[in-house]
Design a protein that fits this description.
Blueprint: H1 9-33, H2 46-52, H3 55-88, H4 94-106, H5 109-119, H6 125-128, H7 131-156, H8 160-169, H9 174-185, H10 187-203, H11 206-210, H12 216-226, H13 228-257
Length: 267
């Protein structure tokens, strides 16, 4: 017998209010973006045409997206083995890592970028003057809290010791255990950290501005100062692109992990 759960009226009201809270600003922005750049009258797609014909739009959106992918890749390569070893052998270091992960929250981005500009001032020009060098490093630090706490929650949800011992008893190496046993079990946590990192990099303004790199948020600020209707259109475009990128990451993660079953560790 199937038991159907009914949503309480009060819960439905709060869900409806929550949806309105997120939808109404988007609707208002959409209506504002449909006004003509020249006459200010509604309704026209002139603002969207103006944005799509800007070469800087395509350059900056591609640069920010590539920086986001670089940050996600570096963060996963650095933090997945680190958090795995901490949960497996060095449990006492977990509070230390958790404290370090809070530092990017405490230190303002403007202070962070000034410190990084001074620290890396003597590095080669191909690193210091290139967005994939300097900004890539800064964004990995900025995304550290999101990636660490997401992965930490994923590792705490599984029995790392049991999975590792079972894999090694079957003759698997440490790398094989990490890739084929541990990663499938923390895939959801890794995707969550990747989503947060993607959203952080796509919307980061202060570091890129002070480091004088032309990323997508810099272009958005420039349009906001010159074309208000274009800025509204660009805001909706960036919102859609960010969500499309997140959904594509989710689809890729599920597709790669859909062929195998997750291995649950015994508690």
């Amino acid at each position: 017998m199937t038991v159907r759960r009914r949503i309480a009226p009060s819960a439905a009201v709060w869900i409806f209010l929550g949806v309105l809270y997120f939808i109404l600003p988007l609707i208002g922005t959409l209506i504002f973006s449909l006004h003509s750049i020249d006459t200010g009258k509604c309704c026209t797609l002139a603002a969207y045409g103006y944005i799509f014909h800007q070469s800087a739009f395509w350059h900056t959106i591609r640069l920010s997206f590539e920086l986001a992918l670089e940050t996600i890749a570096i963060s996963l390569v650095l933090f997945v083995p680190t958090v795995y070893l901490v949960h497996l052998k060095f449990r006492k270091l977990r509070p230390v890592l958790a404290f370090m992960a809070l530092i990017p929250f405490v230190v303002p981005p403007i202070v962070l970028v000034v410190g990084l500009l001074d620290v890396y001032r003597g590095t080669p020009s191909w690193y210091y003057d290139h967005p994939f060098g300097f900004l890539g490093t800064a964004y990995v630090i900025l995304a550290f809290p999101y990636m660490f706490f997401a992965l930490d929650a994923g590792f705490r949800a599984i029995d790392v010791h049991t999975l590792t011992e079972a894999s090694q008893n079957l003759g698997a190496s440490w790398l094989t255990t990490l890739v084929k046993v541990i990663l499938p079990n923390i895939r959801t946590a890794a995707l969550a950290g990747s989503f947060l990192t993607l959203a952080t990099v796509m919307g980061e303004f202060t570091i890129a501005n002070l480091a004088q790199f032309q990323t997508f948020p810099i272009f958005l600020d420039l349009i906001n100062e010159t074309q208000p209707y274009g800025a509204a259109a660009l805001t909706l475009i960036s919102f859609g692109i960010t969500w499309a990128a997140m959904l594509s990451l989710l689809f890729i993660g599920r597709k790669r992990g859909g062929g195998g079953r997750l291995i649950a560790g015994a508690r």
